[in-house]
Request: fold
Amino acid sequence: MKILCKDHEMAAARRLMELVSTIDPRIEIVHETMPRTYAQRFLARAGSRLFSVPVEDIAYFYIRNRLCCIRTIHNTDHFITKSLDEVEQETDNTVFFRINRQFIVNYRHIQQVQSWFSGKLKVKVKPEIPEDIIVSRLKAGEFKKWLGE
Reply:
């Protein structure tokens, strides 16, 4: 007998396998790999109005006053109900990178990266934001690799 599992079911399937293998060693776990799909748009709100923001129009996601926001390429801000952790899971990691706890940036909208203190990096994005966007020393290597180093 074969047990077909998806990614999020693998831990439970392994525990089940440990229990069942003593009864019937012919049972096998088969990992089902499905192509990963990414969000094509995000639902934003403005007051009581809801609208869809296409991923192509997003320059970066950021946290403002504990709420997740989208800054579009047209320099407009929109609130979304998702957390940055959820956004990170739903976006294509070849296009978007989680810089720190406050920012996920689109590589097309990174204007400049410069060395900062203690091995950190400072990122300038377009449209601009008044605060500094800093990549930690621990994440700097991964970020440079993602940029194409």
In short: The chain has a mean pLDDT of 87. The chain has two domains: 2-31, 41-147. Residues 2-31 form one domain. The radius of gyration is 20 Å.
